[in-house]
Amino acid sequence: MSTEVRHPIFARLYARMSPRVDAKGGAEHRRELLAGLSGRVLELGAGNGLTFPYYPDAVSEVVAIEPEAYLRDRAHEAAAASRIRVTVVDAVADRLPFPDESFDAAVASLVLCSVPDQPAALAELRRILRPTGELRFYEHVRPSNPRTAALWQRFDDWNIYPRIAGGCHAARDTEGAIRAAGFTIESCRRFPFKGGPVSAPHILGTARR
Ligand SMILES: C[S@@+](CC[C@H](N)C(=O)[O-])C[C@H]1O[C@@H](n2cnc3c(N)ncnc32)[C@H](O)[C@@H]1O
User: Fold this and answer.
1) DSSP assignment of 122-133
2) Which of the residues 10, 46, 137, 174 could staple to 166 if both were Cys, CB 3.0 to 4.6 A apart?
3) Ligand 1 pocket, 89 CB below 6 A?
């Protein structure tokens, strides 16, 4: 069993707050994120399983990894109530316990901000995707304004934001990291959204392996 990700206070806060954020627009983003998916899908860091209700019927199976124990228990509960078959697994993003090319699609929802090693996580996602596989992403990212970005970068570098937000980083260039990992971005919509204490730019899109 993985014991590497422990955020007991954040996990409980997230489980309580995230449905409220979904009620204010997050749920629509999840629906858009997953629209048109089919086949066998890996979901990275599924948290309390808020995406599960939005998988289309054409998805045959979702394998959802979640390393944080409290959130994983909540994900198991969400999986039990899901129309789609969802298997929840205790694992971390930079060592996915799955063979090469074993998934049709991968989903990263508000998680590439939190993984400690973003390039390693993206390399793992490319590895487990079939050659035509796609990565769907919905992430908050670094602000475009250079002064704001520099300030948020300091919050990350000084471990202020990660410490209060369960390892989350405020200033990551996740779109750039997806490209750098070798994916081809097919669509990427950028928009402001208040998923946390302040509004942050979010990206939502599709990248091809
Ligand atoms: C902000 S929550 C998002 C949860 C969920 N994906 C959602 O959309 O609501 C970030 C998630 O990343 C998970 N996480 C943190 N480090 C991780 C890692 N190394 N590998 C996989 N997931 C991780 C956390 O446990 C948490 O569930």
Assistant:
1) HHHHHHHEEEEE
2) 10
3) no
Distance 134 CA to ligand 1 centre (A): 20
Q: Taking residues 179-187, what's their average pLDDT?
A: 98
Greater confidence (114 vs 196) lies with 114
pLDDT digits (tens, 9 = 90+) for 92-120: 999 999 999 999 999 999 999 999 999 99
Indicate if the pLDDT at residue 1 is higher than 50. Answer: no
Regarding the beta carbon of 18 and ligand 1, being less than 6 Å apart is answered yes
Q: Looking at the predicted structure, is the pLDDT value of residue 44 above 70?
A: yes
Query: What CA–CA distance (Å, rounded) separates 203 from 191?
Result: 7
In short, whether 139's Cβ falls inside 6 Å of ligand 1 is: no
Using one digit for the tens of pLDDT, what is the confidence trace for 164-180?
Answer: 888 999 999 999 999 99
Q: How far apart are the first and last CA of the chain?
A: 29
Which protein residue's CA is at the shortest distance from atom 27 of ligand 1? 47
The pairs formed by 23-29 with CB atoms below 8 angstroms and a separation of 24 or more are 24/194, 25/193, 26/50, 26/193, 26/195, 27/54, 29/138, 29/193, 29/202, 29/204
Q: Output the pLDDT for position 164.
A: 87
**Looking at ligand 1, which atom is closest to the CA of residue 7?**
25
Residue of 111, 124, 137, 138 to test ligand 1 pocket, by largest number of atoms within 8 Å of CB: 111
